[in-house]
Amino acid sequence: xxxxxxxxxxxxxxxxxxxxxxxxxxxxxxxxxxxxxxxxxxxxxxxxxxxxxxxxxxxxxxxxxxxxxxxxxxxxxxxxxxxxxxxxxxxxxxxxxxxxxxxxxxxxxxxxxxxxxxxxxxxxxxxxxxxxxxxxxxxxxxxxxxxxxxxxxxxxxxxxxxxxxxxxxxxxxxxxxxxxxxxxxxxxxxxxxxxxxxxxxxxxxxxxxxxxxxxxxxxxxxxxxxxxxxxxxxxxxxxxxxxxxxxxxxxxxxxxxxxxxxxxxxxxxxxxxxxxxxxxxxxxxxxxxxxxxxxxxxxxxxxxxxxxxxxxxxxxxxxxxxxxxxxxxxxxxxxxxxxxxxxxxxxxxxxxxxxxxxxxxxxxxxxxxxxxxxxxxxxxxxxxxxxxxxxxxxxxxxxxxxxxxxxxxxxxxxxxxxxxxxxxxxxxxxxxxxxxxxxxxxxxxxxxxxxxxxxxxxxxxxxxxxxxxxxxxxxxxxxxxxxxxxxxxxxxxxxxxxxxxxxxxxxxxxxxxxxxxxxxxxxxxxxxxxxxxxxxxxxxxxxxxxxxxxxxxxxxxxxxxxxxxxxxxxxxxxxxxxxxxxxxxxxxxxxxxxxxxxxxxxxxxxxxxxxxxxxxxxxxxxxxxxxxxxxxxxxxxxxxxxxxxxxxxxxxxxxxxxxxxxxxxxxxxxxxxxxxxxxxxxxxxx
Length: 686
Ligand SMILES: *Cc1c(COP(=O)(O)O)cnc(C)c1O
Known about the structure:
- By secondary structure, the protein is of the alpha/beta class.
- It is 38% helix and 17% strand.
- α7 (153-166) links the parallel β6 (143-148) and β7 (171-179).
- α1 (20-33) packs parallel to α2 (58-67), α18 packs parallel to α19 (474-485) and α22 (581-596) runs parallel beside α24 (667-685).
- The longest helix has 29 residues, at 223-251.
- The protein is elongated and about 95 Å long.
- The two termini are 26 Å apart.
- Bound molecules: pyridoxal-5'-phosphate.
């Protein structure tokens, strides 16, 4: 698993025309003289001359000459354009950072060190989504900043340093370029000021030269110091990966994990991410096939979400909703109410799915208590349900493997059977069954309606149970029964909300309007813990009265309505609109359905359950009898382990392989996810 840190330095500048190429050439010459094999790369060259297909860039020629390397031009400079403008503007053919990364890796394999020259400064756009800073991050290279000497150097160097660091880049140091023959007071004092305020090393100040004479420049540039700093960075990075893996095993108790197995494992330590890919401390990339446990929607490091977080952090990171309000929490509440099923006009914040459910339970309970229905103190929930891990949410759960041991701690409710069409206990088939499995539920509800405060349900899909999908019409009938008997309906859309099933909320497929809607996971776009429980005006009013009447909802968490998380949530709703996420989802869901067909013929695949951009593939030992693999065999885990070694990260649910990629996944990535998963199943269980 051990892979060495990348062998390269990313040379960027405070602006265009500052002298990146000069500095890169000086470094290449100096290191070559020391006997190093130096490679050069200028992934994007604009202002090229010559014919299309064989465009020549003056800078690239200088770099090749200085380094003496003879690599093919398509590796050294894969994207060349004639117009002297930003690549995003100049590019006619789509720009691919993947291609740049592959070219870099090939160059790194041929040389001891590769100098990668960026284009313009760090914020120059490469694609609609990526800047030069994102490219440096993708290549995982430390950056060397070339700064224009002279008046103004402090400001533009510090700005560049801030851009680099907030993009997560490691800065090796700064080289000042273009020093006057008789340096001004500013020029003489700037390096010390920049070093101090920017907390950065200065590797020299190169005088302004009529012709960029590398030899003259070399006298003013500490090429050896830069090399040493780079080598230090590399060895620290290598040690860091080992150290973190060791410390994780020693200090961290992972959720839902048998730690005795984990302690013997080689943990994957995520360091960065971009789009649907995660990158670990060893530089390996993984397709995030379960959206970092069902939370990510628009991809990692989405510039709009990251930007919203940065803007908000510049204002306030946290303030309380106990006794005060804050801007993003108000805006997000308004945005959510507009999107939610009709009638859900009041919103209570918390910070995870379990508490969102817990709050709905407490509100429903208290509402009955103080509004003339004190006998309604119990809940009706479904077999195989999962509503979170706190004692209250476990009480309405139904997964024995997780919940059995806590039995004595839980409050008692009514439990109804849930549909599981693949293993129908009634041995019936949809639709001729007419959803007969709902009969006992309807009976219990009718019988005990005076005692039941609310019915709790996961609309359309019981996620944690193994992506068990409900037959069409099931949810609607549950909602109708609740209405008929005057019992609250709590819809737990923690997993299925925010487009996962194809509509913004799953309830909307069946025109269901619950009394409570629980949201979490995708609410913040998948970047921060945030949850909300929405309810009706009627429920809300049941809590009004004088303070002395003791009708207050005495519940709240320290981070309720956290402004940072809410800012991300608000931006995520904007992304839904701006990028037409739901509209684009239709074609992806269709493609997903097509791709899932490849699992049908696999001898160990018993059932394929898809709803929108979520699917569960149930593996069985015997397809005919549907005999499951014994749980001790850890079949799902073995398949996912196999996939991890091939750059795909999944998390199974027992014998069910879960595919739940970010909504932003591309067609190509979706195909790859399905193709590789099918191959893994074939290879691991035949
Ligand atoms: C994940 C989940 C929860 C619990 O959310 P947490 O944020 O993990 O507490 C509750 N309900 C459903 C349906 C979920 O999928």
